[in-house]
Amino acid sequence: MGLLRGLCGRGDVRVEWALDEAEAVREAERIFRENAARGYAAFRVDGGVGGAVRIDEFDPTAKEIIQVPRIVGG
């Protein structure tokens, strides 16, 4: 089971999928790509030592992916 969490102005948007659910995987990947196009940074969270690893492509085998908007200074 995988989980995509998108942190945004609406809060924490969650999308879950299982590898055997092709439609759910496609939907999670679509949302991932949409957020990436908006400039969101993505991190694969595997737990344990090492924490999170930055990723640029959707990984359907990831246990959890967190996407966050980039911080804009002013």
Distance between termini? 39 Å
Query: Could you name the ranges where pLDDT drops below 50 across 5 or more consecutive residues?
Result: none
The order of strands across the largest sheet is 2-1-5-3-4
Shape: globular
Instruction: Specify the oligomeric state.
Output: single chain
Estimated helix fraction: 10-25%
What characteristics describe this protein?
about 70 residues; alpha+beta; five-stranded mixed beta sheet; 1 helix
Could you please describe the fold and organization of this structure?
The chain is of the alpha+beta class. The chain contains 1 helix and 5 strands. It has a 5-stranded mixed beta sheet with strand order 2-1-5-3-4, covered by helices on one side. A hairpin with a 2-residue loop joins strand 1 and strand 2. It is globular, with a radius of gyration of 12 Å. It starts with a strand and ends in a 6-residue tail after the last strand. The mean pLDDT is 90.
Brief characterization of the structure:
This protein has one helix at about 20-35, and strands spanning about 1-10, 10-15, 40-45, 50-55, 65-70. The protein is of the alpha+beta class.
